[in-house]
Amino acid sequence: MPVDTGAAAPSAAVPAAAAPSTPSAAAAPRIVTRVVFARDGQKQGIERLHVVRRQNTMNNVAGQVALNVALLALGVGAAGAGFSKTDLLGDEIPELANDPVAVNPGMDDLRDALSVIATRVYTERAAQAQAEARTDGSTPEEIQAAGEVPTTLDTPLHPRAWQLVYENLSTDDGLYRLRFAAEMGRAGFLRPPMLCAYESEPLTWTAWSAQNWQALREARSQAVAHCTQVLAAFADKRW
Question: Per the CB 3.0–4.6 Å rule, which of 75, 126, 225, 232 could disulfide with 16?
Answer without folding.
Answer: 126
